[in-house]
Amino acid sequence: MSYMDSNLWFCFALLLIIEGLMPLLFPTRWKVLVGYVARLPAEKIRTLGFILVGLGLISLMLL
Fold first, then answer.
1. Number of domain units in the chain
2. Residue 8's Cα: distance from chain center in Å?
3. 30: which of 10, 11, 23, 38 fits an S-S bond (Cβ 3.0–4.6 Å)?
4. Does residue 37 sit in helix, strand or coil?
5. pTM score, two decimals?
C-alpha cells in the first residue's frame, strides 16, 4: 500500500471517529438535530453541503 493510500484510509477512519462522537456522547441531541435537518428544504441542505465542501477544500489548500 502506498503512502497516499494509507493517508487516505487514515483520514477516512478519522472521519468515521469524529462523525460517531455526537451520536455516541449525545444521542438525544443528535436525534433532534437529524430531525431538524430532515425538515429543512433541499436547497438549504445543498447550500450547507456546498459551504462544508468549500471549507474542506480551503483547509486542504492551507495544509
1. 1
2. 15
3. 23
4. helix
5. 0.68
Quote the domain boundaries for residue 46: 3-62
Q: Is the Cβ–Cβ distance between 8 and 1 less than 8 Å?
A: no
Query: Can you count the helices (H) and strands (E) in the chain?
Result: 3, 0
Cell numbers of 31, please? 436525534
Residues shown for the chain: 63
Neighbours of 54 (CB within 10 A): 10
Encoded amino acid at 33, one letter: L
Cell numbers of 54, please?
Answer: 468549500
CA–CA gap between residue 27 and residue 63 (Å, rounded): 33
Render pLDDT for 8-48 as a digit per residue (tens, 0 to 9): 889 899 999 999 999 999 999 999 999 999 999 999 999 99
- Contact by Cβ (8 Å): 23, 30: yes
Task: Write out the three cell numbers for 62.
Answer: 492551507
